[in-house]
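Now for a chain:

_____
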Amino acid sequence: MKRVAFRVLGLVLLAVSARAQSVEPTIYAESFRKGETRITEDSFEAKLDPDNATYRERIKDSRGNDRYELAITPQGPEGDKQITSWRVKLRDLHHSIYSNILLEEQEPSGDPKNNLWWLNPNRFGGVPIRAKRIMKVDGFYVMFQVKDIHFTPLDSPYLDSMAVQFAFTNSDPRSR
């Protein structure tokens, strides 16, 4: 009887340990943009695949006017239609000089906090693919996380679908 109890206890501890290790991190960064603009809070899910590889969504300011454009675009080998990752960009429609304000620094760097916008499933990438990404931009927060990802074939580097959950909020989501 004791052997069975110890085996069950061992399996429970193993399951708890595996569950604890599978929790994805939350990575927080602040954009180089430090303005006061607030937005109309919203959340949505972008479903991407080779037939619907690009996604666009207008983000409204607190007055209800279009202020930002969120765009998700595929990346892959040059001259090939295969997709290996997606890139998320947030553009301020009033200041088109900046193509992506989801950057901590305007200069490219390998720092994971400066690459939250790159949805790269490569295990050697700087940001784990299922990490919760939070970026403070101006006076609001953008939170996004890959909820589902699929490769075809399963052992290939080529993506055939990805679902990304987005939330735009004026309050810090880390305090919830």
